[in-house]
Amino acid sequence: MSNSLALNTDRFRQIINDPKLTVKQKNQFLALEAEALLDYMPVSDGVQSAMKQGVICDMFEGNAPFKPRYVLPDYARYLSQGSAFLELDAANDFDDALNMLTVLYHHVPSVTNIPVYLGQLDELLMPYVGQLSDAQIYQKLRRFWIMLDRTLPDAFMHANIGPSDNLICRTILRIDAELKQIAPNLTFMYDPKVTPDDLLRVACANICECSKPHIANYPMHAQTYGEKQFGIVSCYNSLPLAGGANTLVRLNLKEVAQRAESVSDFMQAVLPSYVDLAIELIDARTTYLHEQSGFFNSFMVEEKLIDEQRFAPMFGIYGMAEAVDTLQTKSSLSGQYGLDSQANQLGVQISQRLAQLLEERPVKYGWQQRALLHAQGGISLDIDVTPGVRIAYGHEPDPVSYVLANAPHHAFYPSGISDILTIDETVKDNPEAMYNLCKGALAAGYREFTANVASNDLVRVTGYMVKLSDIEKFAQLGSRSNTTFLGAEAAKNTAILARRPRIVSMETTPVYQEQAECN
What we know:
This is YjjI family glycine radical enzyme. By secondary structure, this protein is an alpha/beta fold.
C-alpha cells in the first residue's frame, strides 16, 4: 500500500471510529475526504504559492466545486407556483406553506450541505395566515422552529424577518427568545421609515436574552441590491435573492502587509498583486462550477427559483487589525488599530482601496460581473489573526468608541461585515441601553449590528451561534449540532472568547480535525 493511500485509509478509519460524530456527520466528513482526493483545478504557480503560504484561502470548498457556496431560492415564487419536480401544488394555507418550505429546505445545497437561507419568513407566511388565531400561529411556528433546529442542526442556517411590523415577525421573535436555540440564525431587517421603535426594542431585548437577532440596516442593503432583492444568509452575508454566492475566496491582509515595504508599497503594488491572484482563483473555481459541474441544470433553475446570473463570488478579507498595526510599525508609528485615529483612518483607506481594486477587475461569472467585497468572519483555524475588520480581541474600546472606529468600513463591504460587541450582563437590567447602542450604530453607518451579552450561554462565535455549555461538553460527548465543533476549535485556537465585555450606559455607550467554519 502506498504511503498516500495508507494515510487516507487511516484518516477514513479515524472518522468512522470517532465516537463524538453522529452518522450524518461521519457521512459528511467522508464525502469531503473523497472530494479532496481529486486533482485541484488548474491555477497558476502564483496562486498555488499564495495558497500554500496562507495569503489566499479557498475556504475548503473542495477541489471540484459542484454546488454554489450559498443559495438563496425565491421561496415566494415556489409557494405561489408549486414545484413540478417535487410534485407539489401551490400552497393554499399556512400548513401547506410550512410543509412546502420544509420539503424544499432539504433540496437546497450549500457549502455545509444544509440550507443557509430560509427566506424572509414573515413576508412568505403572512399571506397564508387566514383566520388563524395568534395562539394557533404561535403553536405552529414554535413546532416549526424546533423542527428546524433538530433536523437541520447547523448554525449557518439563517432566517430573515422585518422591517415591517406584523404577527409573524413578532411571533418569531417571541419564540426565538423562549427557545434560545443555536439554529436557525436570525436577522431582523430595520428600516427607520418602516419599523416602529417598539418593534426594534423587542429585537434588542431579544439580544439581551439570546444574542439574536442580527439587526440589519435595510436601506443600506437595498441600495446595493434593490428593494426586496436580497437576503442575509449563513453568518451575516448579504447576497442577491434568487441567486447567491458561487464561491468565497479570502485574502489574509496580515500576510499581505508583512510582504510590503511601506504603506505606499502595500497600496500600490503588493495588495493589487494579491487581489489579482485571488480573482484568478475565483475565476478558476467559478468556471468549473458553471461550465462543468452541471449544477445550473437543476430543477431550481428550470422552475425559476434561482437564476445563474444572480450568483456572485465573494471576495473575503481578514486580518485588517494586524495589517494596520504592521504597516504602522513599518512607518515608525505606534498607534494601534481600533484605539488610534490615525491607525483607524489607515484601515478605512485599505477598505476603500480594496473596493476600488474590485471595481476595476471584472470576474468571469458574477452578478454585475464583479466580486462582492466581504469582511470575512474568520475560521476556527485562524491563529493570531483577527476576523474581517474587527478590532483585535481583548483590545476593544468601549462599545461607542468601537462603533465610531469601525462604522466607516461598512460602506465598502456589500456582501457582509459584522462587529460582534460583547456587552456586560448588566445590560439585561437596562435593555434600553442596547436599543440606543443599536440605533446609534445603524445611524452611524453600520450595515449590521450584532452583540453578545457576557453571561449568556448562547453566544456568537464568528457570526454563527453556539452554546458555551455545548463547547464544554463537546470533548467528551460530541454534539448533534454540526457547528459546535467549530466553536470548540475556535475557542481553542483563537482568542474568540476573550472579547472584552463592556458596560453600556445611557450616557456613554471545513475538514475533519481541521474543520473550518465560514461566513
